[in-house]
Write a structure and sequence with these properties.
Chain lengths: 426, 337
């Protein structure tokens, strides 16, 4: 019942958007280019999804919705972060709305499902929104799927070296969410941490949405320098709250979604346990790079303050970069999408894209190599918490600096991967 | 109790042995053999105590649910929304007053009033029509969820606990010895101890009201045979109103208590609705001792499962529900009617 209501709403929303944008295109000589936006507008990442839609709009406004003389239309297809919904909506975009290519999806497991769907539509292109699943461009990748953002494992890279070298924390225990993104994000951190000589004493995996972590907190060992937490959303807040109630103890290290806006904007004292916690991810809010500063200014000017975040979210940035890549690719082929989009695909593959996060290029799997930022949670004005950038690692590639064979030999992210001892740690 | 022992001597023996074993596990120092099987004593005890507090929370939510069902045969699927609403209102009130002990009665009254309104304006009009009531309560839960999303937004809230309840307390239970041989005592969050004590007080008070007062007599009579009670001249609608208001208020209080150690966010309403459904099915529909037993079992299983088999902890809850439905469909304490 709930489900019907949601789909109806989503359908109505998509319809209104497509109708509103398609009317002026009649006057153009060449037919418009239609882009399908596959984005999660329900569920845990709904707020991030709305920011993604805003950022697609922002990127298209830079070119006045026109590339190579052809007008650009967008059609939004809402998902709910479930892979089956993502595939159904992608099919709808391709078969009913007849879009030329798709930008999306947003969530990890959606990305894996869309990779498989992409193989059934070789004449259409898919540019990933912000899905972070390693498998999307690593395991049997589809030739028409492109990812201009980093994956979940890359986001974790750089943090390990930072905590070992700068903080001097060498013995840790880890608590992470027991699902695809939890494994992937942890793998990126652990590979880096173990190579830097760190020791992982014990690993805990907690189910998504397990609200009571008292039992896990009691098991955490005392003789460690820090605890790595790879959770997000309300799981993260519940853990921090109960962690404080149990008397806290040692320092914390955070995964990529441990200290994002959903956690930092939560009401209550729980998040204060995060002060001083280093995390890593694809962006730093206080990055001084002029490209980032210009982008943030553009974002703030484009939307009124109550209709946007203070600073673009992780999800928004991902979709902005994906849309910029699409525009750059279309420009390179002069808006020509004939020949099963082969020329367009070749252009995308060889792009050297200037993004707010620095220059991004793709490898042979059509996966981005780029910069990872290490941030530390600090107290901001008025008791708020903010992320302060403390380090950056440029040129993080898909295999985290290993050769493809080494990386493949290590195995896919799982509860027991990576083996810390094999990487030089303990 | 004595009747139970007479009728089921074998079961009584098993229960006594299990209770003694649990007591021994809690109080006695563990040998290395036990530690090899169950891990460190601290971990086990934390899981047990965590399960007790979680059970206490579930009991608070489920007791109102089961009372309403027992008396009115009304499955109130908006019960979870009352929990979440109570938590949100508690957050607002405690921010104004800064005192949790003022918040609880305020929330109880506000949410109970909402319950009275629902009973008086909505459910009274569709008495005895189970399908319609179910549909209407689902509809109400969706409307309430969207209204709460509108007012409080999608971010999560946690309630501040009073200063004197923050941090852990040391319990007089030895969990091991440190390197120099001194005993190490168990540490447990004070908030959770307070929650446990409060749930026990509320449970005992409810038992007293149900078994020692005139209102309790009416309610018990109504649960057993509504028609006879009406026929004997009792204005049953007032009893309905009292029970619905009380059950709603209890859900509201549970929201405040839950908000102190779990977060309040969209989605928590259905989670607690599901939890109280499971508790009530396991314990027996309409029975307060059943709700207590069911809540205790579900809470303990969730916590112990999370420690010893994290992957399957979600399954255990429903496994127990399935077993109860298979072998004792009326619930552990439910009466067969």
């Amino acid at each position: 019942m709930n489900w019907t209501k949601r789909s109806l709403l989503g359908l109505a929303g998509a319809f209104a958007l497509s109708w509103g944008m398609s009317t002026p295109a009649v006057a153009q000589q060449q037919p418009p280019i239609r882009i399908g936006i596959l984005v999660a507008l329900e569920g845990a990442f709904a707020a991030g999804g709305r920011d993604a839609v805003r950022n697609v709009e922002l990127a298209l406004r830079q070119v006045n919705h026109t590339v190579a003389g052809r007008r650009i239309e967008t059609i939004v297809a809402p998902t709910d972060t479930r892979p089956d919904t993502a595939v159904r909506q992608a099919r709808k975009l391709i078969e009913q709305d007849r879009v030329d290519f798709i930008i999306g999806p947003l969530s990890g497991s959606e990305g894996i499902a869309i990779r498989d769907y992409a193989k059934t539509i070789p004449d259409r292109t898919i540019i990933n929104g912000i899905s972070g699943a390693l498998e999307m461009t690593w395991v049997d990748p589809a030739p028409n799927v492109f990812r201009f953002n980093l994956d979940g494992a890359q986001w974790g890279s750089g943090l390990g070296t930072y905590v070992v070298r700068t903080k001097g924390w060498r013995r840790i225990a880890t608590v992470s969410a027991d699902y695809s993104f939890g494994y992937t994000n942890f793998l990126g951190f652990a590979v880096d941490f173990c190579r830097a000589g760190g020791t992982i004493v014990q690993r805990f995996w907690v189910p998504l949405g397990a609200a009571d972590f008292g039992g896990v907190i009691a098991q955490l060992p005392d003789n460690v320098d820090a605890i790595y937490l790879g959770m997000g959303g309300t799981d993260a807040i519940n853990f921090l709250n109960q962690w404080q109630q149990a008397g806290a103890g040692t320092r914390l290290i955070g995964g990529t979604i441990m200290a994002d806006q959903t956690v930092l904007s939560a009401r209550g004292r729980a998040k204060d346990a995060l002060i001083g916690t280093p995390t890593s991810g694809p962006l730093a809010e206080d990055n001084t790079d002029p490209a980032w500063q210009d982008y943030v200014r553009l974002y703030r000017e484009a939307f009124p303050a109550n209709e946007r975040f203070n600073s673009p979210s992780l999800f928004g940035v991902g979709y902005y970069i994906a849309t910029s890549a699409a525009i750059a690719g279309l420009n390179a082929v002069n808006g020509d999408l004939s020949d099963g989009q082969r020329r367009f695909n070749a252009a995308l593959s060889s792009l050297k894209l200037a993004t707010p996060l620095g220059e991004v290029s793709l490898n042979e799997n059509r996966q981005a190599t780029g910069t990872v930022f290490v941030n530390e949670v600090a107290e901001g004005p008025g008791g708020t918490l903010v992320n302060r950038m403390v380090a950056r690692v440029d040129g993080v590639n898909q295999t985290l600096g290993m050769t493809a064979e080494q990386f493949r030999a290590m195995g896919l992210p799982s509860r027991t991967n990576p083996d810390c001892r094999a990487l030089g740690g303990g | 109790m004595t009747e139970f022992t007479r009728r089921h001597p074998l079961w009584s023996l098993i229960i006594v042995v299990l209770a003694a074993l649990l007591l021994w596990l809690i109080l006695a120092p563990w040998t290395t053999g036990v530690e090899a099987v169950l891990g460190r004593k601290r971990v086990f005890l934390n899981a047990v105590f965590g399960g007790l507090t979680l059970g206490a929370l579930y009991f608070l939510v489920a007791s109102g649910f089961t009372l309403i069902f027992g008396l009115m045969r009304n499955v109130n699927l908006a019960h979870g929304s009352l929990y979440l609403l109570g938590g949100y209102i508690g957050y607002v009130v405690s921010n104004v007053t800064g005192e949790l002990w003022i918040t609880l009665p305020v929330v109880f009254i506000v949410v109970a009033l909402l319950g009275l309104l629902l009973q008086h304006q909505v459910f009274r009009r569709m008495e005895g029509q189970e399908l319609r009531q179910t549909m209407v309560t689902i509809g109400l839960s969706v409307v309430l969820a969207d209204l709460m999303l509108w007012v409080w937004g999608g971010q999560s809230y946690t309630l501040q606990t009073p200063q004197w309840l923050t941090g852990p307390a040391t319990l007089p239970i030895v969990v091991g010895a440190d390197r120099s041989g001194n005993p190490v005592y168990m540490r447990f969050p004070q908030v959770r101890i307070a929650i446990l004590v409060m749930a026990i007080i509320i449970g005992v008070a409810m038992w007293l009201v149900l078994n020692r007062t005139r209102l309790g007599m009416l309610i018990r009579a109504g649960v057993d045979d509504r028609e006879m009670l009406t026929a004997s001249g009792v204005r049953i609608h007032y009893v309905f109103l009292a029970v619905f208001g009380f059950g709603a208020g209890l859900a509201g209080i549970a929201g405040v208590i839950g908000g102190t150690f779990q977060s309040l966010a969209p989605g928590e309403d259905t989670r607690f609705l599901l939890a109280s459904l499971v508790v009530v099915i396991v314990g027996g529909m309409g029975s307060i001792p059943g709700a207590a037993l069911g809540a205790l079992i579900i809470g303990l299983v969730e916590q112990i499962g999370l420690v010893y088999a994290p992957t399957y902890s979600v399954v255990f809850t429903f496994l127990i529900m399935a077993l109860v439905l298979a072998f004792r469909p009326q619930g552990l304490m439910g009466s067969r009617r």
